[in-house]
Amino acid sequence: MKTIKIVKIGGNIINNEKALHSFLADFAELKGPKVLVHGGGKLASEMATKLNIPVTMIEGRRVTDAQTLDVITMVYAGKINKQIVAQLQAHNTNAVGFTGADGNTIVSVKRPAKPIDYGFAGDVITVNPEIPTLLINNDVTPVFCAITHTKNGQLLNTNADTIASEIAIGLSNNFATELYYCFEKPGVLTDVENDDSVIEHINIESYRKLKADGVIFEGMLPKLDNCFHALKNKVKTVHIGSTAMLFNSKNKHTSLQLL
Amino acid sequence: MKTIKIVKIGGNIINNEKALHSFLADFAELKGPKVLVHGGGKLASEMATKLNIPVTMIEGRRVTDAQTLDVITMVYAGKINKQIVAQLQAHNTNAVGFTGADGNTIVSVKRPAKPIDYGFAGDVITVNPEIPTLLINNDVTPVFCAITHTKNGQLLNTNADTIASEIAIGLSNNFATELYYCFEKPGVLTDVENDDSVIEHINIESYRKLKADGVIFEGMLPKLDNCFHALKNKVKTVHIGSTAMLFNSKNKHTSLQLL
């Protein structure tokens, strides 16, 4: 089986045009099949504010009313996704932009309104990897934004970390999947103030202990839960760190495994 | 060679949610390979106005400054394109949304600033039909919005009629292409006030005469020029009329041929 890299980039890259362009130039050089996944949180909030649409976050997650969903669709699938695709083309990487609606790739259900009503927020139920696989096998790099659909015509705002893990899982029958979560830190830290405190290896057992000891705290937990969900579902390796880990395997970062 | 329908829809459908949903339900039922092309003029202008970005039109064409290009990318490639894709999926038509940047499908150059500076407006120079062809051969319907790219990272606003004819030309080596321009009239009219005055057949010779006699006037000329450009470049048939012509071949409309 061919190896494929599924790379999720975070707000620290998306929100900074220079950082994004520099990252995409490097990403284009990565050899072999690859997939890029992005959100676009801050730009969506800025656009909502410009349009006088209130931005509501509960526990770090966006409440997506109908107007906000429109903004997200415009910013994620329009502005950001197409800028990324055009930049990759400039670097001779043949990219095609995707939401979960394109190719019926990611089907989700609207999250139940209780206990918290997040509005048009989607929880993934099915990944159909056929169309991305077809494109990947023809040297195309799919670029996914954080939007899915219900298959009944409704688009849904969906967590980009979840999209990345679900896509990786969906591709694992045909590829040896390597999942990379790039964010503003060099990895999972024991001391959030100290970038040198990267935990280089985490497995299910040590994760349990890190949680029990309160070393890993709230914001990190859904990300790590996503990682272990992926590992339990045939994803070969999962890595968390800065984008540098993609281009230099010796760069210190966090690698996760089951055992 | 398999027949393929390339269908361009206009503002009268895009700007009316009910009309769009009803059209897409019918379009999904069309048998055989197909491609949909859309612009989204009015919604882009509305969004620009909401964002206090001035809307400037010269001779019916939009002047696209950097801010306006962002709006167009958000509205065309985001909001409209993804709503169409999600609706088609709901009707069991497997669609994938495209700009010309996706799959490097349509490469254009920025229109010269003289005699009129239209800003980030693109004139098509190359169509690469490989990725759409691959998808079409796998029962996918590409949905194109009116945006192209320079291959140097720049997106460009591009006339949707032109996109439709260039895509049709690009697909003509592998398919028998039928190009349909749907708009608010039942066809090309001798009397713009009278919907019964449809000219059912136009060829190069009669087109020349209709122009000379002033029967066909300004707004219609670029559309018809596009049609004849397509016919001169291997597109099999071109039709202009209401969407009804797609679903009932006996519906009165304008058919174009070279001779």
Automatic annotation (TrEMBL), chains A, B:
Residues that bind substrate: G40, G41, R62, N157
Chief site of localization: cytoplasm
EC number(s) recorded for this UniProt protein: 2.7.2.8
Pathway(s) it belongs to: Amino-acid biosynthesis; L-arginine biosynthesis; N(2)-acetyl-L-ornithine from L-glutamate: step 2/4
Molecular functions per Gene Ontology: acetylglutamate kinase activity
Family under the similarity heading: Belongs to the acetylglutamate kinase family. ArgB subfamily.
Matching PANTHER family: N-ACETYLGLUTAMATE SYNTHASE, N-ACETYLGLUTAMATE SYNTHASE, MITOCHONDRIAL
The protein's name: Acetylglutamate kinase
Taxonomic source organism: Tenacibaculum tangerinum
